[in-house]
């Protein structure tokens, strides 16, 4: 379907008109001083050229790899929307930042602050909050017999849901743990239940040694931070976003964390995929 798009120079542009079969849509007051539309187009075009490898290489991450990964995500599988080229409201770029690099730098600071606060929680409080989260999950994740449910091994003060995982197994669920294969690739998911052998994975997080690979029906992911739109701030590697974008059948995505990890916005970018549900000890938020 043909469309005529007229863009004027950044210094003078005050509107963009799209004339399609005599239907006119006017996007008023493009703010060229904050995010010039040339940068919006460049960001969108760059997003289209990102093409993460789908290979399942077996190389281990080096210390420099991990340090680099913590600085900012490198490649993402989520495509940009063509509207990014027209209206900054759809660009995925927060108007308070000029570039993605600014967002990454801001996220790095917030990430460290939120992790430090989470680790500082008293053990008794963390256990109480985790029990409350598990109770909420029981009301959301109901008919699990025969379903593949991905959870996580607790890391850096995350909620410890291993006890709840054992309850899921008793109810007939097939529990999975995520496995990092290599940077810039989607996660694998391997089955595991209490008593089965584990081995050390990236960051020394235990992963199933012999579990069968499977695609999850439900993904329960830890949060470093989250906002009212159910966007998740993770550890900066982009693994969950890349994985959710690569799965042929989209699972129910549930983020879990503590209420203190809520922030006003993560300043979502084009590659960020929101959770369907965010669960804390005090609230359940649906997207």
Automatic annotation (TrEMBL):
InterPro entries: FTHF_cligase (IPR002698), FTHF_cligase-like_sf (IPR024185), NagB/RpiA_transferase-like (IPR037171). Gene3D superfamilies: NagB/RpiA/CoA transferase-like. Pfam families: 5-FTHF_cyc-lig. Its EC number is 6.3.3.2. Signal peptide: none annotated. Its cofactor is Mg(2+). It is an enzyme of class 6 (ligase). It catalyses: (6S)-5-formyl-5,6,7,8-tetrahydrofolate + ATP = (6R)-5,10-methenyltetrahydrofolate + ADP + phosphate. GO terms for biological process: folic acid-containing compound biosynthetic process; tetrahydrofolate interconversion. The keyword ATP-binding applies. One of its GO terms (molecular function) is 5-formyltetrahydrofolate cyclo-ligase activity. Keywords: ATP-binding, Magnesium, Metal-binding, Nucleotide-binding. The keyword Transferase does not apply. Belongs to the 5-formyltetrahydrofolate cyclo-ligase family. This is 5-formyltetrahydrofolate cyclo-ligase. The lineage of its organism: Bacteria, Pseudomonadati, Pseudomonadota, Alphaproteobacteria, Hyphomicrobiales.
């Amino acid at each position: 379907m043909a469309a005529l798009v007229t863009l004027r120079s950044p210094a003078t542009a005050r509107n963009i008109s799209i004339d399609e079969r005599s239907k006119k849509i006017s996007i008023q007051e493009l703010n060229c001083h904050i995010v010039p539309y040339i940068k919006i187009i460049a960001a969108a075009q760059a997003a289209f050229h990102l093409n993460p490898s789908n290979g399942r290489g077996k190389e281990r991450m080096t210390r420099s790899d991990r340090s680099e990964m913590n600085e900012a995500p490198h490649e993402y599988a989520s495509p940009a929307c063509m509207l990014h080229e027209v209206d900054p409201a759809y660009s995925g770029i927060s108007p308070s930042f000029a570039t993605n690099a600014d967002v990454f730098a801001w996220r790095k600071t917030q990430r460290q602050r939120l992790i430090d606060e989470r680790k500082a929680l008293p053990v008794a409080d963390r256990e109480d909050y985790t029990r409350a989260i598990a109770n909420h999950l029981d009301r959301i994740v109901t008919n699990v017999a025969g379903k593949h449910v991905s959870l996580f091994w607790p890391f850096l003060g995350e909620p410890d849901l291993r006890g709840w995982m054992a309850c899921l197994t008793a109810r007939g669920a097939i529990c999975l743990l995520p496995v990092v294969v290599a940077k810039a690739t989607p996660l694998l998911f391997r089955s595991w239940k209490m008593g089965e052998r584990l081995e050390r994975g990236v960051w020394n997080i235990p992963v199933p040694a012999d579990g069968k690979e499977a695609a999850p029906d439900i993904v329960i992911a830890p949060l470093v931070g989250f906002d009212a739109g159910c966007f998740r701030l993770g550890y900066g590697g982009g693994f969950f976003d890349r994985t959710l974008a690569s799965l042929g059948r989209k699972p129910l995505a549930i983020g879990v964390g503590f209420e203190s990890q809520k922030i006003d916005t993560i300043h979502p970018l084009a590659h960020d995929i929101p959770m369907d549900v965010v669960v804390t000890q005090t609230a359940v938020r649906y997207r």
